[in-house]
Amino acid sequence: MNVLVIGRGGREHSIVRKLAESERVDTIFAAPGNAGMTEATPVSISEQDSEALIAFAKQNEVAWTIVGPEVPLLEGVVNAFRKEGLTIFGPTKEAALIEGSKAFAKEVMASSGTPTGAYRTFSDEEEAISYLESVDFPIVIKANGLAAGKGVVIAGDEQEAQQAIRGMLGGEQFGDAGKTVVIEEFLEGEEFSLMAFVDGRDVYPMIPAQDYKRAFDDDQGPNTGGMGAYAPSENIPASEVERAVESILKPVAEALVDMGRSFTGILYAGCILTDEGAKVIEFNARFGDPETQVVLPLLENDLIQVMEDVAGGRDPKIRWKQATCAGVVVASSGYPGSYEKGHPLPEFKEDPASFSIYAGVKEGQGNLVSDGGRVMLVGSVQPTLEEAAAHVYKSLKPVTSPYFFYRTDIARHKSMSSSSSSEYK
Question: Does the UniProt entry include the keyword Nucleotide-binding (predicted)?
Answer without folding.
Answer: yes
